Amino acid sequence: MKKKLVIIGYSALTNGIYREQITSLFSDAIIVDEFCVDDEKIRQGLNADLVLVQSYYIFKRIRQYVQEKSKIIVANRTISKAGLEEIMKIPKGTKLMLVDEDAEMATQMVSVIYRLGVRHIELTAFYSGSNSSSEGKNLIMLGESKYIPRSPTKIINIGSSLLDISTIMDIASVLGLVHILESQNIQKSYKEIVTTNFGLSGLIGETNLFEKELDILLQVLEDGIIGVNYKGLICTYNEGAEKIIGYRKRDIIYKYGLDILGKIPFKYVLENSQSVKEKLIKINGYDVVTSVHPIIHSNRLYGAVAIIKKFSDIEKKQHQLRSQLISKGHRAKYRFQDILGKSEAIKKCKSNAIKMAKSNATVLITGESGTGKELFAQAIHNRSKRKDYQFVAINCGALPESLLESELFGYEEGAFTGARKGGKLGLFELAHKGTLFLDEIGEMSKNIQMKLLRVLQERQVMRIGGDRLIDIDIRLIAATNRNLNDMVIKGDFREDLFYRLNILRLKIPNLNSRREDIFFLINHFKDEFNGKFEIDEAAKNALLNHNWRGNVRELKNYVEYIISLEIEKVYTKDLPFQDEEVSGKNIPYQEKVLMDEFIDMADRNIKKYIFVLKELEKAFRVNRRVGRRSIFQKAKKEGIFISEQEVRSILVNLEKYQMVEIFKGRTGTVITEYGKKLLLYLK
């Protein structure tokens, strides 16, 4: 409940100035009314927590109207710094009269001015009813006054009097609002005033300086800090505690902490003078770790202080420190907006990946080299619930088996010759709560495949040379440009691990299957490398018909090549590639064996297969996809007897032999490089 204060003085202007001083500090905790001493409303009774009067003479006049429960303070007044500066400008030896409302106030203000160090002038108190005459005298006025002397020689107005700091402190103490003053620097709030209470001023200055430094220290701490005195009243409460507990500081400070914060073991610590360390409690639905310590000095208990932190924040901090230990950021920098392309193939792939990001299941990304498998892996992580944790990536084909094992699982000190002192965290541990990306997983040895399978099953890892299991919580994303199905059949990849990985499968389209993105990507890379060049029509056709074995990476390299050579107009001769036609002579033996198997399978329908492949190749050259209905219509037009159902069966068989790639819906079918080789082989 707000406190009520009534100000009573001689003028409305002075009352208003006092009110501004008070409300600037206590605005949210106090209601202020003001009356002039002759106001008839005073006679109706003064109902307030505190009555502030300008002088003892005023107090005697209104005393009978003040309720017994109300406290009364007679104001200690001072002047402003600007007023003091005006007085200091007065020539030395000048005699002046200081005019105020009554004898007490005038005498008190003369005393104040002398105490502020004024020694070069001679002052006399002057007030209504004074025996002295003001005629022909120099006067000092304090702002507005009902009493204006006659015929002075000169009037120096130094502005209205102000409440001294000591009176502000008295108001705070009587109304129980000292905690509001403790949260701010009083001298800074009242920098325009000067005070005669030098001891109090100095003490406040030193105390506020210390408390401000301590307050800043408490606020920058991420942990919640709550202090109670020996009675259990909350006296310290920083922003970290406010975020965790939810109470605002002004609503909880100086309240009984043992009731409000009963789950924090303040009572035990105060009663037993013993610390409680790292106790797990629940506040506002959060798991919170708290430690409470007694404050004891010279065998006397002064209170207790609690340090609280969210359990989830502790885990997050732990992973940040793990990251710093090995001096790597391990952050995913790419997002889905960084994956470029306007083709339906890449749009469909991104759409599927976005859906997969919502899940916590393992993702297996397949695709040719240069298609952007890691780009998709990082984007999935950044769209997932684990985005605030680590993204740890490793290329399984870039390291020998022993080194890959130590990187993944870590090791204890002394595990082997040359092991780092103190041991080393493995990437599984580092990726805890985050994502582990295993690139080129098809290159992983059978030995490590077996260990990886166990980790995925048990969600626990043991360091090399260690004897304890470490719980981990990771999401795994694996990528490969190899056909894991074939590897499983040949025994090169564990079947049980394959099914552990093959939960959410994402196939990245190669650049040959989305040729409509080629010039879109070229323009993007031109901007990235700050290059300018134009492309001849023949060169454009060459780019469209080129076999992009290196995919987007190859295209980016070519753009950088053109810009580096400062070619302004690109012709076919300037392109850094030469397509080589494949003939039956340079087809590897294993591929010939597979082609012969296909020919045996096709048997007497081989001509129909050749017709379908030729139609697909024609469409490929003009950057177009065709479906089974289009192929059926073309066959009918050319007099070739083949049903639409046969076309469907032929396309399915061709895909089994990796000679075509069938896209769902109306997207159509595309011939692969292997399919082109088959046509040349059959020629």
TrEMBL record:
Keywords: ATP-binding, Nucleotide-binding. The keyword ATP-binding applies. It comes from the Bacteria. Residues 339-564 form the Sigma-54 factor interaction domain. Gene3D superfamilies: 1.10.8.60, P-loop containing nucleotide triphosphate hydrolases, PAS domain, Winged helix-like DNA-binding domain superfamily/Winged helix DNA-binding domain. Residues 210-253 form the PAS domain. One of its GO terms (molecular function) is ATP binding. It holds the Pfam family AAA_lid_14. The keyword Chaperone does not apply. One of its GO terms (biological process) is regulation of DNA-templated transcription. Transmembrane segments: none annotated. SMART domains: AAA. SUPFAM superfamilies: P-loop containing nucleoside triphosphate hydrolases (SSF52540), PYP-like sensor domain (PAS domain) (SSF55785). This is AAA family ATPase. It comes from Clostridium fermenticellae.
